[in-house]
Amino acid sequence: xxxxxxxxxxxxxxxxxxxxxxxxxxxxxxxxxxxxxxxxxxxxxxxxxxxxxxxxxxxxxxxxxxxxxxxxxxxxxxxx
Length: 80
Prior knowledge:
Elements: H1 2-10, E1 22-23, E2 26-27, H2 32-39, E3 43-46, E4 49-53, E5 57-66, E6 69-79
């Protein structure tokens, strides 16, 4: 299942450069506050990075600092 998700997310027909990426409710451009609300208490973070970990994956979320505050820019997911 996990490899199918990755294949689907990064297939050439699905990848659009003119729109923000989205994984579930996480979407490029969300404020760090909105991401924290969505993820709840199961996060670790410092500065411009948040991390969600469980026994099946680690997801790192990276934020960029704009005039409006920190916004979600990219994500890295490691599957086990």
